Amino acid sequence: MSSLLVSDRRIGGTGLASVLGGWRRPGPAYAALADAVRRAVLAGDLPLATRVPGERELAAALGVSRTTTSGAYGLLRDEGYLVSRQGSGTVTALPPADRRGPTTRTPARPAAPEGVVDLTIAACAAPRTLHAAALRAVEELPRHAGHGYAPLGLDVLREAVADRYTARGTPTSPDQVLVTTGAQHAIALLMATHAGPGDRVVVEQPTYPHAIEAARAAGARPVPVPTGPAGTDLDLLESTVRQVAPRLVYLIPDHHNPTGATLSAAGRARVRELAARTGTVVAGDEVLTDLTLDGPEPEPWAGDGRAARVVAIGSMSKSHWGGLRVGWLRGPADLVTRLALARRATDLGTAVLDQLVAVELLRLGAEPVEERRAQLRAGRDLLAGLLAERLPGWRFTVPAGGQSLWVDLGAPVSSALSALALAHGVRVAPGPAFGVDGGLEDRLRVPFTAPAAELRRAVDGLALAWAALGSPGADRDGAYAAARPSALV
Questions:
Q1: How far, in Å, CA of 353 to CA of 196, rounded?
Q2: Ranges assigned E (strand) in 397-457
Q3: Per mean pLDDT, which range of 104-118, 224-238, 430-444 is the poorest?
Q4: How far are the Cα atoms of 2, 17, 37, 74, 118 from residue 63, in angstroms, in the given order?
């Protein structure tokens, strides 16, 4: 623990206030503030070994009394989330696992005897076909047991992925496919090779949080463009590209995470034309494309495949299993080669056995994907019904695909709700986690990937947390748009 206490990292009162967002809720202010700081530490928004502002400075930044900040800091010190040393100030830390919870100084809260339902990760358990596929992959392994390094990916997997694109209407050859260690690896590679310190990268608002992190890790500045019921605001996208000349545009065209929106065929064509006209590389994340639950599957992002500046990202993670760290990128052959060379700085190739398992799963065709869709469809309908019953003031649209509902809470309390929900047995990501510069405090992502029993417990916990907040959206019409298409309204 002592090594964590020596740090030059410091956050000021204004900065911490921004990280905490809308932390206030009914009840003791010091307990609400402690909940918000604890959540920020556990979520990584407030890194470990960060020196926090003094009690007086934070009180001024938050507009509360010093008694409130003193009480919150005292509680967090008792729990082990803050550690103070004379001359070094107070820094963030993690207590031992058996101490990560409320202490006797915290007001009594309901326990979660069956454990916490974690809704911060939108992912399903492994499919029943995984074990047999893994056994077949092991049988194939001797044929690929050379030196084991394949920066471009195994030929057999690149061919399988290329065949999938071709079957969907985007003619693709294996030399246009780069196998990556998950879709996040593909995103990070694109960011690292196309953007550097001070460069602009356009993303949607809201969007996949790890894409924002990848842009910032490359030293780039994410520039947000709003996404609405029909997907990305294309007028604003075009004007933003003209104004800031980004090195890269990252979009999620299908069953958008977190809103659920899907870009129309006309919208995709417009983006491809924008890429060709401006020379900007536009990446479309198709990780959720296979999870179309209602209606036809969206048109392929790359269209007929002739757009030179359009890149598609795919993965086995959502359609099959997140533990299988296999993804890919489909783009021009010269770009694929350049990315394969660039990856050598951090990664010499995706695990061979994992790639062979992916090949075996892809050979099964639609079977495992249809099972995944059926599972998600049932979870979606169950969650929508539970929320309509227990939290009728929350508004959302039932999406045509994807893995989550994007809920309008009707009040800017998302961070406070997520902090309080943990004490009621639910871990959930607040709206600001999906934004470039915060905001989205009136939104909450609620995945429907968990088993039915866990979804019921999660909604029970959210309802209790909402009631503890005073049900701030209770005056609104509680109807939700069950019959609408896939986007938040």
A1: 34
A2: 404-408, 426-427, 443-447
A3: 104-118
A4: 33, 10, 16, 19, 32
**What tokens appear for 389 in the block?**
């019953």
Q: Is the pLDDT of residue 484 over 50?
A: no
Q: What is the largest CA-CA distance in the chain?
A: 69
Which tokens hold the place of 223? 């520039």
Residues 211 and 202 sit within 8 Å (Cβ to Cβ)? no
Instruction: Annotate 330-394 with DSSP letters as a single string.
Output: E--HHHHHHHHHHGGGT-S---HHHHHHHHHHHHTTTHHHHHHHHHHHHHHHHHHHHHHHH-TT-
Residue type, 48: L
The predicted-structure confidence for 228-239, as pLDDT tens digits, reads as follows 778 889 999 999
CB 121 within 8 A of CB 34: no
What distance in Å separates the CA atoms of residue 53 and residue 39, rounded to the nearest whole number? Answer: 17
Residues 38 and 76: beta-carbon distance below 8 Å = yes
| Cis upstream peptide for 258 (omega within 30°) | yes
What is the reported pLDDT for 33?
92
**Residue 262: which of 447, 434, 488, 436 has the closest Cα?**
488
Tokens 């980004």 sit on residue: 246
Q: What is the pLDDT of residue 44?
A: 64
What is residue 443's DSSP assignment? E
Strand pairing category for 200-205 and 221-228: parallel
For 116-159, the pLDDT digits (tens) are 899 998 999 999 999 999 999 999 999 998 888 899 999 999 99
Q: pLDDT band at 8, cuts 50/70/90?
A: low
Instruction: Give pTM, 2 decimals.
Output: 0.76
For residue 99, pLDDT beyond 60: no
pLDDT of residue 107: 35
Coarse DSSP helix, strand, coil percentages of the chain, rounded to the nearest 5 percent: 45, 15, 45
Are the CB atoms for 38 and 19 separated by under 8 Å? no
